[in-house]
Amino acid sequence: MIRSISMLSRQRSNTYPAMSKTELLLRAGLSEKESAVYLAMLKYGSRPTSFIAEKTELNRGTAYVTLHALLAKGLVSKSIRRKVQYFSPLDPEQLVYYVEHQRSELAQTSRRLTDTLSELRQQMNPLASKPKIQFFEGRDGARAVFDCTLQAKEKTLRAFLSLGDIADLIGPEYLEDYTNRRIKRGYTLLVLRTMEKDKLAMTSNTYARKYITSKVQHRQVRYLSADLAFPLSMYLFDNKTAIVSSREENYGMIIESGELCEMQKKLFLLLWEQADRRKPQIA
């Protein structure tokens, strides 16, 4: 089992962009403090709370709470020696089991929510629960905006997209997962990008080269001139305008306005008819 996981890990390392151990742990569901404590334990082995607190620069109370959080996740063990509690890291393979368990629980929760959607919607107050503008912060917020596009009634999504900036903010793995879900749900994407920014993204990251015009992936790409390059991205669907910034400003926004969305769709159509259909040539 350990060997198969190791082989899978090597295969994935050749597929996905490199990331730090801390970022990997954060994506696995650990908090920043839990990640720091866990990595310290891997380095130093079985230690008391005071030692871990010193090495991670956390106060002893915070370190104690964090260690017990890792204990609850099944990633560390606890023993008592001379009336002192020692914490030891378990084999990192436990991380894989933890993630798989979380995925299983989320899948069950998703199915239960789907079964109760009609009941939940009946309790909605249309005036109180549907703001015209929704604001989202950080990577998770930007991902939430992308997820909302897959709830659209229209089956054609229109987008102004900065490929490199989007992948940098939401992560290339999530972008691939989003694309697969979009295709599976039958959404077509018409997207305007700029040739210069695409070449930069595709030269820096080979994964970006697959996001070109493709019948299989239900995607049509056309290119605007360099002077129209944009750092943020915008999706247009139904009566909504969804905006996702670059990593520098780190936010997402959904504006529910028929008039605004209609105007943006007309602007999109005007630019779409004039845009270049040629694919970028990457050496």
Could you give a short description of this structure?
The protein has 283 residues and is of the alpha+beta class. The protein has 11 helices and 10 strands.
Can you characterise this structure?
With 283 residues, this protein is an alpha+beta fold. The protein folds into 2 domains: 2-93, Arc Repressor Mutant, subunit A (Orthogonal Bundle); 130-274, 2-Layer Sandwich (Endonuclease, Chain A), CATH 3.30.870. Helix content is 51%, strand content 19%. The protein is built from 11 helices and 10 strands. It has helices spanning 2-13, 21-27, 32-44, 49-56, 60-72, 93-122, 138-149, 163-170, 172-184, 195-204, 258-274, and strands at residues 47-48, 76-81, 84-89, 133-137, 156-160, 188-194, 219-224, 233-237, 240-244, 251-256. The strands form 2 sheets. The protein has a 7-stranded mixed sheet with strand order 4-10-9-8-5-6-7, with helices on both faces. Helix 2 (21-27) packs across helix 3 (32-44) and helix 3 (32-44) packs across helix 5 (60-72). The longest helix has 30 residues, at 93-122. 24% of the residues are buried. Residues 1-14 have low confidence and may be disordered.
Summarize the topology.
Elements: H1 2-13, H2 21-27, H3 32-44, E1 47-48, H4 49-56, H5 60-72, E2 76-81, E3 84-89, H6 93-122, E4 133-137, H7 138-149, E5 156-160, H8 163-170, H9 172-184, E6 188-194, H10 195-204, E7 219-224, E8 233-237, E9 240-244, E10 251-256, H11 258-274
Parallel strand pairs: 5-6, 6-7
Antiparallel strand pairs: 1-3, 2-3, 4-10, 5-8, 8-9, 9-10
Helix pairs in contact: 2-3, 3-4, 3-5, 4-5, 8-9
